[in-house]
Amino acid sequence: LEVRYPDQTFSGQLVFHGTKRSAELVEVAPGHTASDAYLLLPADRILFMGDLGFLQSQPFMVYCDPQAWVAELEQMEQLDVEAYVPGHGPLGTKADLELQREFITLLEELVGQAVSDGLTAEETLEKTLPAPFDDWIQASSARWEANVWSSHERLSGESES
Q1: N or C of the chain: less Cβ packing under 10 Å?
Q2: Domains of the chain by residue range
Q3: What is the pLDDT of residues 93-143, one digit of tens each?
Q4: What are the pLDDT digits (tens) for 13-71?
Q5: What is the CA radius of gyration of the chain?
């Protein structure tokens, strides 16, 4: 086995044509992180989401742009895809992407309301989201804490970013 290091970068889209299929590497706006992309196998109707996908689990939102991430998920839902392969969680469907979008949106609304009500991040941590998201929160309380703190900092204007 010979190790080969990356020797090419791309912007927008990069298409690979193989003997059996083509693969499309697609750059998307900063959502989960400052540099996001997914890999689409159009003929197989499979989308490899990388860290854009946290299916059936609480997404890690500390470095994200929530509105951009939600828009990217909506864009991926519009693709002719049967299977979504996330970076985190099980193989998913369009319904799983919808749940992830809903989680991000509800967390933003919850923290935004807490900021409007003058609550601290610590006080906001005592709040929760409805089912099925309450189970996601209980499964990873450390992630919930990080998500609430970072969202609170951003929405209250206390964030440096």
Answers
A1: N
A2: 13-154
A3: 999 999 999 999 999 999 999 999 999 999 999 999 999 999 999 999 999
A4: 999 999 999 999 999 988 999 889 999 999 999 999 999 999 999 999 999 999 999 99
A5: 18
Q: Is residue 160 over pLDDT 60? A: no
Q: Hey, what amino acid is at 82?
A: E
Query: What is the tally of helices (H) and strands (E) in the chain?
Result: 5, 5
On the 0-12 / 13-18 / 19+ scale of CB atoms within 10 A, 96 is buried
Distance CA 88, CA 53 (A): 6
Alpha-carbon distance 97 to 49, whole Å? 10
- The length of the chain in residues reads 161
Region of 32 (left: φ > 0; alpha: ψ -120 to 50; beta: rest) is: alpha
Which of 86, 84, 70, 3 has the alpha carbon at shortest distance from 32?
Answer: 70
Instruction: Please report the sign of the dihedral spanned by the C-alpha atoms of residue 139, residue 143, residue 148, residue 154.
Output: negative
Sheet holding 13-17, edge to edge: 13-17, 22-28, 36-41, 46-54, 83-88
CATH fold for the domain made of 13-154? Metallo-beta-lactamase; Chain A (3.60.15)
Six-digit token string for 147: 């998500």
